[in-house]
Amino acid sequence: MSAPILENTATPADLLGRAGLRRTRAALTVLDVLLAEPVCARTHAEFEKALMQRGVPVNRVTLYRLLERLVATEVLERHSDDADRAWRFGLRSLQPDMPLPRFECDACHRHFNLPEASEPTKAAADQILSALSNLGHMGQRIDLSIHGTCSGCIEPPSRR
After folding, report:
1. Which of 44, 48, 87, 132 has CB 3.0 to 4.6 Å from 137, enough for a Cys bridge?
2. What's the whole-model pTM score?
3. Tens digit of pLDDT for each residue in 104-157?
């Protein structure tokens, strides 16, 4: 198993260095935004706004390319947000070789990894990949996310 891409003490410069990417001001700021709230996944527009607020204006196309490069080098993960009809980008999970199921809050867009479910998920993923292989297909990865509303966004019964 390869070493995790993201560690608790990782800095933006560390992540870019391990991925073999240049340490540009925009790239460092994008990762700084994510490391400040690692459970949040953001859209391109949210990154654009955050960079502007931090005094790092970036051309939209440049930002799209940067985010895609960070996904390609496995620093970030990209997920579709069906409600907003947009891509959301978040930090790659701590265990890149093992599918780590996660819960995604549709209200606040935070991601909660479920490490206690990782072994059963890995077993199920192995079965699915094996079934695909038996059919002559080559599966590359499995992402498992459960959508709903997190406990922080659920309105307490007394306020309904």
Report:
1. 132
2. 0.65
3. 888 887 777 776 776 777 788 788 888 989 999 988 767 777 888 888 888 766
Topology, domain 1-94: Arc Repressor Mutant, subunit A (1.10.10)
Question: Could you tell me which CATH class the domain 98-150 is placed in?
Answer: alpha beta
Paired tokens of 101: 């199921």
In this prediction, residue 28 carries a pLDDT of: 94
What residues does CATH 3.30.1490 cover in the chain?
98-150
Do residues 31 and 24 touch, judged by C-beta distance below 8 A? no
Distances (CA, A) of 125 to 5, 19, 116: 21, 26, 15
